[in-house]
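Design review, sub-item: ligand-bound model
Attendees: FS, YL, KQ
YL presented the inputs for the zinc ion complex:
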Amino acid sequence: MNDKKQQKDAEAAAAASGKKKFSAADLRVIKDLEHLSLSDTMELKRELDNYKNFSLAINPDEGMYKGGHFEFAFEIKPTFPYDAPKVRCKQKIYHPNIDLEGNVCLNILREDWKPVLNLNAIFVGLQFLFLEPNASDPLNKEAAEDLKHNREGFKRNVRAAMGGGNVKGESFDRVMK
Amino acid sequence: MAAADIAFLPNGSEGTRARWKYLDKVLDRPGPFTDPDSFVPGNHETLERAKVLGAGGLGCEILKNLALSGFKDIHVIDMDTIDVSNLNRQFLFRAADVGKYKAEVAAAFVEKRVKGVQITPYCGKIQDKDEEYYKQFALIVCGLDSIEARRWINSMLVGMVDGNDPDSLKPLIDGGTEGFKGQARVIFPTMTSCIECQLDMHAPRAAVPLCTLATIPRQPQHCIEWAHIIAWEEERKEITLDTDDPEHITWLFQKASKRAEEFNIPGVTYSMTQGVVKNIIPAIASTNAIVAASCCNEAFKLLTNANPFLGFPGTDNYMMYTGDESVYTYTFEHQKKDDCPVCGEEALARPLEIDPEATLQEFVDSLAERPEAQLKTPSIRTTEKSLYIQSAADYERMTRPNLEKKMKDLTAEGEEMLVSDKAFPTMFKYVVVWKR
Ligand SMILES: [Zn+2]
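KQ shared the predicted structure:
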């Protein structure tokens, strides 16, 4: 039996059994996940057969968020990688670029996303937000104001919020590792 | 051609050769690019026998052009029904047709207007059809309006290619427009750059930074996007947003209006809300006409050999048209990507003979010996489940029990199987064939 004949048979069998094929989005996300280079400060949590939804934990080992444990939920749409994944911080945290609902302001998640970028680029980008929170792209305006005008106060607020305390009447999730 | 020559022949004069006078001229005389020794110009028969498929938003233009170019056996797929807003440009539809299926109405209209043409409509999704269906055509002309649909037809046509059967290769002519811009491209699946290779050619969705939406909205659209992305999640997280549900659009419209008021931004309307949320880009009749015409000309040349066509392997395959700033067109060769997940070497599903009685462990061992793979630490998945994953220690632990199971209990004939190895950048895609 030649290769092609075999393939035809296989395809006929597939059609009869209604077997699905890997979609282009599946292939791309599997490839991205297979070739991650995660640093020690990142942890990927994924159910074995679920490529569409997974979470990434970031445990910064330097900077103002050192000692914290931050989890992000990822949702891969069927249009990936034309569309960026949807990313949300699972905890309520005090950060100028992440709002209280978990929305994240990171350029490559929206306006600068390109299909040539991969998941690793997003992971690195998220990690960078904890090393260098950015006051000029505020999603949490108050935190951004604090960072801009009162860096020491901002640091204290970060520590208080990470411990599960209140900052200006808003209570935050405890995220200490 | 003198202006008088271009007039349409009146209804009823078909059936005479006169109808195809100009087509005959194109097809019967040696063209400027034809080699008198080897070139055999096509004829009407070539066109008449060619079954072609048109689909999607450029459908009216494509159908009209194909029919008037001499194609006789045309199939059309469209899942949509006719909306009042289509009537300004989709000229095959009339007010009385609103609510009916586009494919049916268009087919009936063109059959009536162009005698001798047979148009077979299918009212549904391109995804409803299988390989057997797509195999019957000589080529496929698509004017689809979504990236998803394009990627689907692309991977279907790439997957159909059988190296031993030239008939399995179906050229794909794809047209698309966005406002004043558009493109026409021709793809020879597996031979030339495919839709997936060209994914980065699609204009990215215009996105405004989230922080602008959240803190300093400047335009009414910013307020709508804020309602869409931020307010909905905050207040109606448990409800999945349905952009076709008027109640949902109304909710977003009211939210956006309130926010616009706070920031003193005029201009939020219900229809703008609908447009922003559904990411509607205005369709311009003339851009559609230009792009569809170009696609159909390429279809005509491709099947008749009348003149060189776009997309011949090794030549230009992509024509971009921009009409938003004066007029500019550029035609170039988009290169095929070796690592394309659809048409790249690694993406083509090869048949893989597997002994159904063998254990997964035996199968894993055999992969190390396959010449094209030689994978020492493979991870193996089917579309249904992960059979054995070695890319992470805990997955390895979870999937290890499968090693003792028989292949027939883990997969099925015809199933796609993906084999990867962390040590290699490529992945291998197989179709399971039982060893008999
Ligand atoms: Zn490709």
